[in-house]
Design brief:
The protein is mostly helical. The protein has a single domain, classed as Orthogonal Bundle (Penicillin binding protein transpeptidase fold). Strands 1-2 form a two-stranded parallel sheet. α1 crosses α6, α3 packs across α10 and α9 crosses α10. The chain is built from 11 helices and 2 strands, in the order ααβαααααβαααα. Keywords: Cell inner membrane, Cell membrane, Cell shape, Cell wall biogenesis/degradation, Glycosyltransferase, Membrane, Peptidoglycan synthesis, Transferase, Transmembrane, Transmembrane helix. Its EC number is 2.4.99.28.
């Protein structure tokens, strides 16, 4: 009995790493653990997969400048940011997010949402593996197609249609920045009906995105 339990646990540990290799294939459209939860609870969800070429570059720029400005330069984890996060935690100070896009992708694909050191410890090697196996373009494509943008709204195409009634390819710079800044808390932050604070934050990201040049070369070169 114990042997079977250990084998089952081992299989669960290995499975995500096997799936990462499967997700290299462009015709595979992964789903997130939140999407699976919604299916199990019979809630349903809206997700419409689109390729990276069908997503407005201004959205990619905005998301990178909002969520992971060093996306093209790190190997899945921004270790300098992680070090500052640990230092802030040890000092009892309010912590910054610290999660790169590969870390968020690994969490969305394989883990759960609530914060814990256990989840973070599992997330780090998964993020490094995801970044190593997948190209930066493919990783970004998966991230933008599984990210949550509201209750039951997953992926940028569903988000663009839901919040702005346009396809992801037609998003404006302002719409893209609003969607980007809503990512950390898509349930409370409504990109389609932004408050003053969200609009102000979107303005900051919009300006950063306009000067993103070298920061996005790994996606468009």
């Amino acid at each position: 009995m114990l042997k079977r339990i250990l084998l089952a646990v081992l299989a669960l540990v290995i499975l995500p790493y096997a799936l990462i290799f499967l997700y290299v294939l462009p015709f595979i459209h992964p789903v997130s653990t939140l999407m699976l939860r919604d299916l199990v609870l019979l809630r349903g969800y809206d997700r419409r997969w689109v390729s990276l070429d069908e997503i407005a570059p201004v959205l990619v720029q905005s998301v990178m400048m909002s969520e992971d400005g060093q996306y093209c330069f790190h190997g899945g984890v921004d270790w300098a940011e992680m070090r500052m996060l640990v230092e802030d935690t040890l000092k009892g100070q309010a912590t910054r997010g610290g999660s790169t896009i590969p870390m968020q992708t690994a969490k969305n694909l394989f883990l759960w949402n609530s914060r814990s050191f256990v989840r973070k410890a599992m997330e780090l090697p998964l993020a490094v593996s995801t970044d190593f196996v997948l190209s930066k373009r493919r990783l970004m494509e998966i991230y933008l197609n599984i990210a949550e943008w509201g209750p039951g709204i997953y992926g940028i195409e569903a988000a663009a249609q839901h919040h702005f009634k346009v396809p992801a390819s037609k998003l404006t710079r302002r719409q893209a920045s609003l969607l980007a800044v809503s990512l950390p808390n898509p349930i409370d932050r409504n990109a389609g009906k932004p408050g003053r604070g969200l609009r102000r934050l979107a303005g900051v990201i919009e300006r950063r995105a306009q000067g993103s040049g070298d920061y996005i070369k790994c996606i468009y070169e």
